[in-house]
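Good morning N.,

You mentioned wanting to compare the apo and holo forms, so I went ahead and generated the holo version with zinc ion. This is what I fed in:
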Amino acid sequence: MVSTIQTAPIIAVKGHSAAAKRMHKAPSLTNRELFRRDRHMCAYCGKTFSDIKLTRDHVIPTSKGGPDKWTNVVTACESCNHKKDDQLLEECGMKLLYVPYTPNRAEALILENRKVLDCQMEYLKSFLPEHSRVWEELKA
Ligand SMILES: [Zn+2]
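and this is what came out, ligand included:
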């Protein structure tokens, strides 16, 4: 026996919302989330690729003390990552086409490309930081 209740797409709860707090947290840094943040675009040549052709590049290589954090990683195609190798940008003469940043959970939910209702999108957008690249797509 199954019971169902009809509710609005967004419901409020009394007190502090744990869900709202989580919206400001960064998602785990995985290649899948990284490639989504960067729209599958190589940070060096600007071309877009499928997941299988992409790599995680550490702007400051880990061998030179660069952290494995959102603000030090970009999406790079295999060719550009191979070319950059273990070098700093000034050593290899390559330039970033975009600046890496830490996304939040709201952005990750939008980028998962689930079926998001308009009212839910408005809610998620309220958590997006100004520097999120999602804004460019929402305006288009
Ligand atoms: Zn590339």
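The chain has a mean pLDDT of 89.

Happy to go through it together on a call whenever suits you.

Best,
F.
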